[in-house]
Design brief:
The chain is 25% helix and 23% strand.
């Protein structure tokens, strides 16, 4: 029975004092809180920053107005699913890539791990994630240090105690070892997944470019690009496979964000893959991503850094 004091306390304290404000260890729970970085925040509208698009690997010069409109559409979908959306503050050392907010940090149930991206222009992002998340009530657990590199786009929670990390050009062996040393005392097993060369170091090929978890037992994947041992691992863990339509590889069809409860957020450009997902029983919501996603190589998961799932 609740005492009168306990009732008074619950009525007067803000909900944030009694409810969890962060966690990790799931990529498919109902999304409740998420960090983003809009094109406006990343200063896509500033000519001196936009002029760096070639060296950053963008397909063409950014269209700020269209990209911002598409990001606004993304945020509307996130809010419609019940998520609290937090836009990181602007900073002078953020590049165009900062809009892909997933990569610079990894929330865990114990606090935030700040990544050290393998793409050097992205290194400052981790520091900004850390300082802003502390304001949001998310403590820092640790940060990756040189010579290690890690990007969260290479990191997938297979379950609450198992982390799969892609070993490629953005996350190196030292980074995986540091993650293992950080999380083993917390009871988390860290597994390594080899990534293909693809088009080389200048092209972003994360583990999450090749697979997206849709629920606890379903994975969307670009099967021909996955290593045999990764495929065998997923099969051994009982995952149901849904393959993307190969004609939509270049429009990031494999990059799909789970909103929880069989809901997914995908790019509207990938109609064939989205129909496969609907046929498999998922509620697929979409937004346009030509200027925001396809140009810079980052889809719905890349644009979002989930901070709280239920």
């Amino acid at each position: 029975m609740v005492s009168s004091f306990e009732k008074l306390l619950s009525d007067t304290l803000p909900s944030t004092a009694t409810e969890p404000r962060f966690n990790g260890h799931s990529m498919v729970g109902a999304l409740k809180r998420v960090l983003v970085c809009s094109p406006r925040t990343a200063c896509w509208h500033q000519p001196e920053r936009a002029a760096r698009w070639r060296e950053l690997g963008f397909v063409h010069s950014p269209d700020f107005a269209m990209a911002q409109a598409q990001h606004d559409a993304l945020c509307r979908e996130l809010e419609a699913c019940g998520a609290e959306v937090e836009d990181i503050p602007p900073a002078m050392d953020l590049s165009l890539d900062a809009v892909y907010a997933h990569d610079a940090s990894l929330p865990t149930d114990f606090g935030l791990i700040l990544m050290r991206p393998g793409k050097t222009n992205r290194v400052p992002e981790g520091r900004h994630h850390g300082s802003f998340c502390q304001i949001l009530g998310v403590p820092m657990l640790a940060k990756i240090t040189p010579p290690a590199t890690t990007e969260a786009g290479d990191i997938v929670w297979l379950d609450a105690k198992t982390l799969l990390i892609g070993h490629g050009y953005r996350t190196n062996a030292q980074g995986i070892q540091q993650m293992r040393a950080l999380l083993a005392p917390k009871g988390v097993e860290v597994l390594s997944a080899p990534l293909p060369h693809g088009q080389g170091p200048s092209t972003c090929l994360h583990l999450m470019s090749l697979l997206s978890l849709l629920d606890e037992k379903t994975v969307l994947l670009d099967l021909p690009w996955l290593a045999v041992e990764t495929v065998e691992l997923l099969k051994a863990r009982g995952y149901r496979f849904i393959e993307i339509d190969s004609s939509e590889r270049d429009t990031l069809a494999c990059n799909v964000l789970s909103l929880g409860e069989k809901r997914l957020l995908a790019l509207e450009e990938n109609a064939k893959t989205n129909e496969k997902l609907r046929a498999a029983g998922f509620d697929v919501r979409t937004f346009p991503g030509s200027a925001l996603c396809v140009n810079g190589g980052g889809g719905p998961t890349c644009l979002t850094r989930p901070l709280l799932r239920e």
